[in-house]
């Protein structure tokens, strides 16, 4: 990393020119990214129900609809109906409209002087006001029209357009939406122009008709696209402002914001290009990536700038400072960036296209942001470094700012109240975790598109108006299947009638679940009633096959093609609803399936094949089926996150224990957040389901910094207690500031127009703040149980080959085991002429010479004389491990020496930290001590008379 940093620093303009070139090329492709805010992004890619849905569409047409809602107190007047007809005539000409349903197409089935009239209600426009009033009466008398196409007060109606479900044309919905608006502008009146900062206003057409507005899929998707643009206009400036405030506070240098803002912009274009090549769209999740990169992705840039300023004060040279931060921060940056990338990328382990695109896109973005940082930051520092000045440091006696005061008090509290009394921390966690664990099992699942919008959004407002006066615009198909011609028979038609009445009667607390339920049996029953002079007793399907055949002759194929297949093998019951909870809709579907399969409504199960003779389908059904993908995706993403990060941390610290312990402080806030979601009824949706994996990936960064800092202090101080205190004191402020920056960055997403994104940002922000307290309070306690050694320390440790090969203390040990042993022990260095051992003094440590030479001196006849020499691999003072005897000789360094100091405390720690290596080490110590004791015994025997 040091070489890469210096390469960029030495050739800044070449690096920036290369980056500009790549960014320009990437921008060409990034600007071609398609926008996909359709319901298809919420349908599981491998759903087993897709095939059935496609078959239903072929038989009965698409369930993708657009609608024009009209409200006018004088709706049924000659003038208003003429305008309505003009609107209708132009709407049916729009490309993509397959079929329409309106007052101009719906059958007005009635007995007209003994003959059955099945012509459309407004087959011809009324010429007088009396005729118009008569049409209104007919509409309110007709159960197929009343409450469904005309409101009960006769003042509202809807023109429904059934659209081709065109996935190949990404502009289809926009084109249909604009075409409908053009028709309404032309015949009703134009809406007021919306200001540039509000692209999706809830404005209605009025003029020749009192109130007219568009609803349905084209309006929803077009409005969502506008919401995306509105959010970008809002979120990006706020994110940049948060970054500026954070940099201004932490570095006192707003010029430093050039680095992260430039990197965010560059990586955004690079990411957009790769997403284009991979076919990933901009959706209601991926659009948040630029805003997140500005704040979340900028933390490494800020660390680099802060480290550069500190290193420049130490060295006095900018180039040397850049090399120093490359060496100091290189591995830390790699580790923290990897965990962040893993946290975001693990969301791709799902079957939902929207979440998959976000997982891949955000992982690519964080990867590019890391690459842009290590590539561009040194170049920026070369060009702007001389102009970046850190704010004046607090001198002694100068008042600290509020953050320093808070962090100082928090550090003291953590040290004295938690670290020295860990039972308090454990008790506090239990008090919080138990209720959180209880509430987390109460979390509901939701994947409904309409739940994405706030109550005040035009989409929800318009749908509520529609449902209040007519019926919901969302469709479900309940399809009954038999053999060809089966539904010409009265027996099977009565089964369809029972199913239809059952669906109409489903209630929850006295309120009907569905707004309307329509099937071919409603047409047959109405004709039967009118054939019997309007007698309500005959408002049912007759039990006569001939009568049914006669009634069907009164209807044209186009009138009933949405309700029965051409070969009369399938009947389609069309259900309209406004249910915005996937969980509730799935419960209803399960309830309906159980009833249809029970046999109580008729034979809808094939005993020979064991298959049901019904199917419940529709886009809403497929989307609701996605809650299973959300649940499994949540488990998969968090599991993958944990496994990969534990493996990575275990590899970095060469210890499974260290890898597992690094995850504990970061899992606890996730449990808290799930508890909050369950307590406050925040559903698990495509936004909130990402909280766990992303927060783990980001929060573990502070744990890595804490672990590495503690490891460094432990080496220099040699005391766990002192190392913990020093680590906490030094890390409290940066941990708090970085957590505050992350929380602020996530809280920015709380301003999003989409509820799942706003919930995601808010929960992540809370999680970041919770992670601070858990990390500071629990991590030190856990660290006291493990000795940390990093992979690069083992690789970088230089030991003389002769030491490993010849030292009795390292006998039967592999090189990497020796390296771990040395790094886990107390390493000491001394200059020449340092007296390590003094003859006659007591000691409790033995020493292994790793580098250098020492002289063994003994007092002979009152004069200290050299009796031997110690070199690399030799052991001295081993008897002190057995008993505190007086030293029998002095040891003085002749050159610079590096020694391994071993006492009983270090041996006990070694036994706890590395039991397998400790076994071999203890055996070797025993051999050395045994040899020395035998030698001493033999010497004592030889001196006897």
What does this structure look like?
The structure is a single chain. The chain is of the alpha+beta class. Helix content is 56%, strand content 11%. The protein has 31 helices and 20 strands. The chain is elongated, with a radius of gyration of 38 Å. The relative contact order is 0.09. Residues 391-398 have low confidence and may be disordered.
Compact description:
56% of the residues lie in helices and 11% in strands. By secondary structure, the chain is an alpha+beta fold. It starts with a helix and ends with a helix.
List keywords for this structure.
four-stranded antiparallel sheet, 31 helices, 20 strands, 11% strand
Share in helix = 55-70%
Beta percentage is 5-15%
Radius of gyration: 38 Å
Q: What gross morphology would you assign?
A: elongated
**Unreliable spans:** 391-398
Q: How many individual β-strands?
A: 20
- Tell me the distance between the termini: 70 Å
Number of helices: 31
Strand order of the largest sheet: 2-5-1-6
- Sheet bearing the most strands, described? 4 strands, antiparallel
How would you state the average pLDDT, rounded?
84
Secondary-structure content class? alpha+beta
Topology:
Blueprint: H1 2-10, H2 12-30, H3 50-60, E1 65-71, H4 78-91, E2 97-101, E3 110-112, E4 115-117, H5 129-141, E5 156-163, H6 172-187, E6 211-216, H7 217-250, H8 258-278, H9 289-295, H10 299-315, H11 318-345, H12 353-384, H13 402-419, H14 422-440, H15 458-469, E7 474-481, H16 490-505, E8 507-508, E9 511-512, E10 516-518, H17 520-531, H18 545-553, H19 557-560, E11 570-577, H20 582-597, E12 614-617, H21 619-624, H22 627-653, H23 656-679, H24 691-717, H25 720-748, H26 755-783, H27 791-796, H28 801-806, H29 815-824, E13 826-830, E14 835-837, E15 846-851, E16 854-860, E17 863-870, E18 875-876, E19 890-893, E20 897-902, H30 904-913, H31 915-942
Antiparallel strand pairs: 1-5, 1-6, 2-5, 3-4, 7-11, 7-12, 8-9, 10-11, 13-20, 14-19, 15-18, 15-20, 16-17, 16-19
């Amino acid at each position: 990393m040091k070489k890469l940093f210096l390469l960029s620093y030495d050739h800044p303009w070449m690096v920036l020119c290369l980056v500009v070139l790549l960014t320009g090329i990437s921008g060409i492709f990034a600007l071609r990214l398609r926008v996909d805010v359709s319901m298809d992004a919420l349908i599981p890619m491998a759903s087993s129900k897709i095939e059935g849905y496609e078959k239903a569409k072929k038989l009965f047409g698409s369930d993708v609809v657009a609608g024009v809602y009209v409200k006018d107190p004088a709706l049924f007047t000659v003038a208003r109906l003429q305008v309505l007809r003009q609107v209708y005539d132009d709407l049916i000409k729009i490309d993509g409209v397959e079929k329409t349903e309106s007052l101009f197409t719906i059958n007005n089935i009635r007995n007209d002087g003994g003959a059955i009239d099945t012509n459309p209600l407004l087959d011809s426009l009324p010429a007088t006001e009396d005729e118009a009033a008569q049409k209104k009466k007919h509409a309110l008398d007709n159960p197929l029209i009343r409450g469904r196409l005309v409101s009960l007060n006769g003042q509202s109606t809807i023109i429904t357009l059934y659209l081709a479900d065109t996935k190949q044309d990404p502009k289809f919905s926009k084109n249909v939406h604009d075409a409908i608006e053009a028709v309404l502008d032309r015949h009703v009146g134009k809406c007021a122009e919306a200001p540039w900062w509000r692209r999706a206003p809830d404005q209605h057409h009025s003029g020749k008709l009192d109130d007219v507005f568009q609803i349905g899929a084209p309006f929803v998707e077009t409005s969502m696209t506008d919401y995306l643009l509105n959010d970008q206009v809002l979120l990006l400036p706020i994110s940049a402002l948060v970054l500026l405030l954070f940099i201004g506070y932490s570095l006192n240098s707003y010029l430093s914001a050039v680095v992260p803002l430039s990197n965010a912009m560059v990586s955004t274009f690079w990411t957009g290009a790769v997403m284009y090549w991979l076919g990933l769209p901009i959706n209601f999740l991926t659009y948040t990536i630029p805003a997140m990169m500005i704040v979340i992705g900028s933390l490494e840039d800020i660390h680099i700038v802060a480290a550069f300023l500190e290193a420049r004060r130490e060295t006095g040279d900018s180039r040397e400072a850049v090399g120093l931060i490359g060496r100091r921060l290189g591995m830390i940056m790699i580790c923290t960036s990897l965990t962040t990338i893993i946290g975001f990328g693990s969301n791709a382990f799902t079957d939902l296209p929207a979440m998959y695109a976000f997982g891949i896109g955000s992982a690519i973005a964080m990867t590019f942001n890391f690459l842009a940082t290590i590539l561009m930051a040194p170049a920026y520092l070369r060009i702007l470094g001389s102009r970046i000045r850190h704010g004046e440091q607090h001198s002694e006696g100068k008042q600290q700012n509020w953050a320093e005061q808070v962090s100082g008090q928090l550090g003291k509290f953590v040290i004295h109240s938690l670290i020295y009394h860990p039972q308090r921390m454990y008790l506090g966690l239990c008090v919080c975790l138990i209720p959180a664990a209880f509430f987390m099992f109460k979390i509901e699942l939701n994947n409904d598109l309409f739940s994405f919008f706030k109550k005040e959004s035009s989409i929800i407002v318009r749908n509520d108006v529609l449902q209040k006066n007519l019926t919901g615009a969302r469709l479900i198909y309940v399809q009954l299947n038999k053999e060809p011609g089966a539904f010409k028979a009265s027996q099977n038609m009565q089964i369809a009638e029972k199913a239809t009445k059952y669906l109409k009667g489903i209630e929850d607390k006295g309120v009907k679940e569905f707004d309307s339920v329509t099937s071919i049996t409603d047409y047959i029953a109405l004709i039967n009633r009118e054939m019997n002079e309007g007698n309500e007793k005959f408002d049912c399907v007759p039990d006569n096959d001939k009568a049914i055949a006669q009634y069907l002759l009164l209807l044209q194929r186009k009138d009933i093609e949405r309700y029965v297949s051409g070969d009369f093998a399938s009947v389609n019951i069309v259900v309209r609803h406004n249910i915005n909870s996937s969980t509730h809709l799935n419960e209803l579907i399960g309830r309906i399936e159980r009833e249809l399969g029970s046999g109580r409504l008729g034979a809808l199960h094939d005993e020979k094949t064991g298959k049901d003779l019904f199917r419940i389908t529709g886009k809403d059904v497929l989307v609701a089926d996605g809650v299973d993908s959300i649940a499994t995706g949540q488990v998969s993403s968090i599991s993958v996150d944990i496994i990969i990060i534990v493996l990575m941390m275990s590899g970095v610290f060469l210890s499974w224990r260290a890898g597992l312990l690094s995850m504990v402080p970061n899992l606890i806030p996730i449990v808290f957040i799930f508890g909050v979601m369950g307590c406050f009824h925040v559903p698990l949706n495509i936004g909130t389901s990402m909280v766990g994996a992303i927060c783990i990936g980001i929060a573990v960064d502070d744990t890595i910094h804490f672990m590495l800092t503690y490891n460094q202090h432990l080496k220099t101080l040699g005391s766990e207690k002192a190392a913990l205190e020093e680590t906490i004191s030094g890390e409290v402020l940066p941990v708090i500031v970085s957590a505050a920056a992350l929380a602020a960055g996530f809280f920015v997403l709380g301003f999003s127009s989409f509820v799942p994104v706003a919930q995601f940002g808010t929960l992540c922000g809370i999680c970041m703040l919770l992670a601070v307290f858990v990390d500071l309070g629990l991590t030190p306690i856990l660290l006291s149980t493990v000795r940390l050694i990093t992979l690069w320390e083992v690789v970088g440790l230089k030991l003389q080959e002769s030491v490993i090969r010849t030292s009795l203390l390292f006998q039967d040990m592999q090189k990497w085991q020796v390296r771990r042993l040395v790094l886990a022990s107390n390493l000491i260095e001394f200059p020449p002429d340092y007296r390590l051992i003094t003859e006659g003094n007591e000691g409790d440590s033995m020493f292994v010479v790793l580098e250098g030479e020492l002289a063994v001196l003994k007092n002979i006849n009152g004069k200290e004389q050299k009796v031997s020499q110690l070199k690399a691999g030799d052991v001295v003072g081993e008897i002190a491990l057995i008993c505190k005897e007086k030293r029998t000789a002095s040891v003085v360094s002749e050159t610079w020496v590096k020694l391994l100091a071993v006492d009983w405390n270090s041996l006990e720690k070694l036994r706890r930290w590395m039991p397998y290596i400790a076994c071999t080490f203890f055996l070797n110590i025993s051999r050395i001590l045994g040899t020395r004791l035998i030698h001493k015994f033999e010497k004592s025997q030889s001196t006897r008379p």
